[in-house]
Amino acid sequence: MLPLKKAIQFFSAFTIFLVLHYSAYCWGFYAHQKINYFAVFLLPPEMLVLYKPNISFLSEHAIDPDKRRYAVPDEGARHYIDIDQYGKHPYDNLPQKWNDAVDKFGVDTLKLHGIVPWHIQTMLYRLTDAFKVKNFSLIMRYSAEIGHYIADAHVPLHASSNHNGQFTNQKGIHGFWESRVPELLAEKEFNFFIGKANYIKIPSDFIWMRVFESAKAADTVLLYERDLTLQFADDKKYAFEKRNGKTIRQYSAAFTIAYNKKLNGMVERRMRDSIYAIASFWYTAWVNAGQPDLKGLINQKFSNTDNQEFKTLNEQWSLGNKMIGREEQ
Ligand SMILES: [Zn+2]
Q1: DSSP helix/strand/coil, 248
Q2: 205: Cβ contacts below 8 Å, ≥ 6 apart
């Protein structure tokens, strides 16, 4: 049991976040884990030698940044950017360099609207440094976590202030697009064989481009759900299904399949783009660090301190879930 004071701290941190950006669950745990998992197979042999034996870690810990949201108030802003708050494409009003953006808008405003494209670059520096000093634990943690943020940047509703359809009477669409669709269809219908990672010359340009693509697709994500809703009676749009022993209402399989069809493969495409981008960022960090030989790290394990941190994170996560009465995903 955690002391009451700590429990209250977690709860207050989450309440603040809830007010700012509630229910922006990223990709869903299922998709995040798949995305990190498949990214490993795009790596060159010099990296595979370390990443393949640790593929379970990279996949399981793809969701650590989401778990941290209860305990770290700053965490929420790292997962999205409400880019429509800065005008229209190509968003000339918004400086892409962090320091210029801070000068213009201030840190508070930037955090309020989300900082995912900048945070990915911070993570890239951290990962590069971890490679330079050949720190096994940091290489693995940062690889897993940068994977999370890159994948989030590919979700259209992570680049829109209408992130859960709350302005258009479409509440729930966030989880519908990024959790329900892949959970129902990825295993059977999506193809994750992608080729190989490439070196990214200008990571900032690359990630901003991906964010712009997400922002552009957000309208379609919302519009198609609205169109399809007109064709489905309420009892056909939703279905009651058992999950973890409880009956919950969710989008029906028929509605999910029809939506995915109408989107013409968008969810699969964004998952594939995420996988390619993650592997390419891992590879770019390794190249920029001077292509260190990773063979010497193969037999390394996480320390007791590492394992204790992972355990604490899970405890905070479970506690946060209990306090808001949400089921673990
Ligand atoms: Zn996220």
Answers
A1: strand
A2: none
1.10.4160.10, 1.20.1050.10, 1.10.220.30, 1.10.575.10: CATH of 24-218+265-324: 1.10.575.10
Reduced to 3 states, what is the DSSP secondary structure of residue 131? helix
Q: Which of 309, 279, 291, 236 is nearest to 67 (CA)?
A: 309
pTM passes above 0.85: yes
CA of 61 to the centre of ligand 1 (A): 12
Output the DSSP codes for 32-99. Answer: HHHHHHHHGGGS-HHHHHHHTTTHHHHHHGGGHHHHGGGT-TTTGGGG---GGGG-STT-TTS-SSHH
Q: Ligand 1 mean position to 283 CA, how many Å?
A: 22
Query: For position 323, what pLDDT does the model report?
Result: 80
**For the chain, what is the radius of gyration of the CA atoms?**
20
Q: With a cut of 70, list the residues of the chain below it in pLDDT.
A: 1-26, 325-329
Cα–ligand 1 centroid distance for 113 (angstroms): 14
